[in-house]
Amino acid sequence: MYDLKNRKTFVRRVKVNGINLENFYIGCTLSILGRLIKIIDFACEDTRKLLHKDVQVTFAMIKPMATNIVGKIITHLYDHGLRISKMKKARLTAEDIHVLYRSLVGDSTFPFLLEHLSGQLVYGMELVGKEAVSNCIKMLGDRDPLKAEPGTIRALYGIDSVRNCVHAASSPEGALQDIEYFFPPPPIRATRLRLTATLSNCTLCIVKPHAVREGKLGTALEIIDEGGFDVTALNMFIVEMDNAAEFYEVYKGIVQEYKGMVEELASGPCVAMEIVAKDKSVVTAVEFRKLVGPADPEIARLLRPHTLRAKLGKTKVQNAIHCSDLDVDGLLEVEYFFKILDL
């Protein structure tokens, strides 16, 4: 990798943990040796032909659904070859609906879509994969769940042609327009489709980069919902090494795994969530910590087999989930991700 600005080699051929071929596509941002690198084009035409054959990005939006069903849909997409490269939870306005459903404004179902989605929370996603646009549409099935092929997402979880689980872009051009709209740059992000953190009786949950890469996000959402918690805000972040070190600074000199924890958090996209207990009489951070389980997944599997780390973790560093350890840390950590890192 050559730095054109400074006219020197940035990195020679070397293995970078946490990055594989499917992570590379035009427009993505990767954390490579502590530096965020945006992929803007191929170096040569031969590389384009070899690596980019049939690879596309598309846009999909999960409509208002129970969190456990959202998790099942995300797992379905992953199992069928689509990877999430951007994701956030946002509340739709009438203007947002007119933009995202511009091709259906004249359709007889549009007034019902407007009523169903206005002011509601949805999950927007940029998806990457081979022929992503057509494959995503095929996975969803017919707009009317009653006409959708068995095994498709709408057949499994849809109700009618309005409450049909997921909206998806119908063309590559439309996908790029939807992605640009749903994930705007910082100046516009402050006013359009803002993050939805409540900052009240909350705690932070991070699905770590290795767990995102391994397709465990959907299962995590299912366990969180079934464990008695709501996901009130969600965003996919790429955390720079300096920010990861700052975030975990409280563990420096305290836990042996500090360096590995920092490197893992900065190794690729993670998903941060604000968690709030469904039972408003309990302290969210304390109760959610119980659901996450011991830091060592091996110990968790012995003592707390139904916890998140027991089911999804691998090692003390790659233990799938970070959560706020103390009640007083919950709000501070949510603010760090949803107010400071999102600037």
Automatic annotation (TrEMBL):
PROSITE patterns named among the record's database cross-references: DM10, NDPK_LIKE
The entry's localization annotation reads: Cytoplasm, Cytoskeleton, Cilium axoneme
Note one Pfam family from the annotation: NDK
Asked if the record carries the keyword Chloroplast, the reply is: no
Gene Ontology terms: cellular component: axonemal microtubule; centrosome
One GO BP annotation here?
Answer: GTP biosynthetic process
- Report whether Zinc-finger shows up as a keyword of the record: no
Instruction: Name all DM10 domain ranges.
Output: 1-55
Q: What is its main location?
A: cytoplasm
Could you list this entry's UniProt keywords, alphabetically sorted.
Cell projection, Cytoplasm, Cytoskeleton, Kinase, Transferase
In its UniProt record, a GO molecular function of this protein is:
nucleoside diphosphate kinase activity
Can you tell me which family this protein belongs to? Answer: Belongs to the NDK family.
Q: What is this protein called?
A: Nucleoside diphosphate kinase 7
